[in-house]
Amino acid sequence: MPKVVAQPGESIDSLIRKFNKKVQSEGILAEIKKREHYLKPSLRKQQKIQIARKKYIRSKA
């Protein structure tokens, strides 16, 4: 869990911004969304293949 240390005279808003930035940089929210629903391994593999196809098509265009 990211920690944010308050400096003397620092506002709460700036602390919240720092915390949010750390959470995003560590990918915590993305991990939570990914684990929200269980995906069978076969479906996960299909998704991975579809994403790879999209990337390949975009790189050709």
From TrEMBL:
InterPro entries: Ribosomal_bS21, Ribosomal_bS21_sf. GO terms for biological process: translation. One of its GO terms (molecular function) is structural constituent of ribosome. Keywords: Ribonucleoprotein, Ribosomal protein. GO terms for cellular component: ribonucleoprotein complex; ribosome. Belongs to the bacterial ribosomal protein bS21 family. This is Small ribosomal subunit protein bS21.
